[in-house]
């Protein structure tokens, strides 16, 4: 049944959080595609550290919702093997900082499966990664490491920023024929609710989402920073400054055309991300703007990012992260150029 479009439901959609949207998407795919299974540390009996898989083992059984040993290397290797043999595994990396032992299997095997076999094999797997800071967690629990994966050919890197996009993008990721790194901003897991129909409708991958239309400056961001960026745009509007807001959503492959089209209209760009500034994914966007949109730019590209340090624990954690005031200041710096 993989790849088929199930019949839509007609029930009234519920207002749910981002983490509940993850659970809802997993349950839909598991009901409609027997090749989908979930595995990871504590995902079964306990329903996951963040309760993303709560109730799934009771519904689908321990053969499809597997509690694994506390061994990320084994989880990644098992996931790659299952995908290569026709299953559609969804693995959980529990925390972003725990993903590093998985990199060997993801980079050396999952990402190369099509290339290595000249298309004879592929690797339809999803690695769910609770991502980012802002929850006052210990070391290794607050990493913003998306740039590690955006540099790897053969991977998709996806990051939702709302319950509705979390649902639709996860469905699309599970149905994709190649490996997807699906990074979930845990700071907004339960921050707000949104009506999300449980209809099995996937959202398109590989496209940016324009969340607000403006004419003076383009604000580009992803993940948890979308909320602050929209708030900044609203405050800028109160001062007569009109901002486009773009949620990148799929970082790799990047829909640069949408960003370039916006910058051609506004002439200015501010890129907002939580990861450290040096070699963060924002640098790739800035480089492409410099090479492909230089004659549209009226001002240097600004970046609002984390610092080139490990995220500080705990009192300085929120100071490290981008915020509304920093975004507004960067936008105004671009407007200072005539």
From TrEMBL:
Keyword Oxidoreductase: yes
Alphabetical UniProt keywords: Oxidoreductase, Thiamine pyrophosphate
Occurrences of domain Transketolase-like pyrimidine-binding (ranges): 16-191
Cofactor: thiamine diphosphate
Cross-referenced Pfam families: Transket_pyr, Transketolase_C
Keyword Oxidoreductase found: yes
GO molecular-function terms, A-Z: oxidoreductase activity
Top-rank lineage group of the source organism: Bacteria
InterPro entries per record: THDP-binding (IPR029061), Transketo_C/PFOR_II (IPR009014), Transketolase-like_Pyr-bd (IPR005475), Transketolase_C (IPR033248)
Role of this protein: The branched-chain alpha-keto dehydrogenase complex catalyzes the overall conversion of alpha-keto acids to acyl-CoA and CO(2). It contains multiple copies of three enzymatic components: branched-chain alpha-keto acid decarboxylase (E1), lipoamide acyltransferase (E2) and lipoamide dehydrogenase (E3).
This protein's name: 2-oxoisovalerate dehydrogenase subunit beta
Organism: Luteimonas aestuarii
């Amino acid at each position: 049944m993989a790849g088929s479009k199930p019949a839509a439901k007609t029930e009234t959609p519920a207002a749910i959080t981002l983490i509940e949207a993850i659970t809802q998407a997993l349950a839909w795919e598991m009901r409609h595609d027997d090749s989908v299974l979930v595995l990871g540390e504590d995902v079964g009996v306990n329903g996951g550290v963040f309760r993303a898989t709560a109730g799934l083992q009771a519904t689908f059984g321990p053969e499809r919702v597997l509690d694994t040993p506390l061994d990320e290397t084994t989880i990644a290797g098992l996931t790659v093997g299952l995908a290569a043999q026709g299953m559609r595994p969804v693995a959980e990396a529990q925390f972003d900082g725990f993903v590093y032992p998985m990199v060997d299997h993801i980079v050396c095997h999952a990402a190369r499966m099509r290339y290595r076999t000249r298309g004879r094999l592929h690797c339809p797997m999803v690695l769910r990664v609770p991502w980012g800071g802002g929850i006052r967690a210990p070391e290794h629990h607050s990493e913003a490491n998306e740039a590690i994966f955006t540099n790897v050919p053969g991977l998709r890197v996806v990051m939702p920023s709302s319950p509705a996009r979390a649902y639709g993008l996860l469905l699309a990721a599970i149905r994709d024929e190649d490996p997807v790194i699906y990074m979930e901003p845990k700071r907004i897991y339960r921050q707000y609710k949104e009506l999300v129909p449980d209809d099995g409708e996937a959202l398109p991958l590989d496209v940016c989402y324009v969340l607000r239309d403006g004419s003076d400056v383009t604000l580009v961001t992803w993940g948890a920073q979308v909320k602050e960026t929209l708030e900044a745009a609203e405050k800028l509007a109160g001062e007569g400054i009109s901002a486009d807001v773009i949620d990148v959503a799929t970082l790799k492959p990047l829909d640069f055309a949408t960003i370039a089209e916006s910058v051609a209209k506004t002439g200015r760009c501010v890129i907002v991300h939580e990861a450290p500034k040096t070699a963060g994914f924002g640098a790739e966007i800035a480089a492409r703007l410099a090479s492909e949109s230089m004659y549209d730019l009226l001002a240097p590209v600004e970046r609002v990012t984390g610092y080139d340090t490990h995220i500080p624990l705990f009192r300085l954690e929120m100071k490290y992260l981008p915020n509304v005031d920093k975004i507004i200041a960067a936008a105004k710096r671009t407007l200072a150029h005539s």
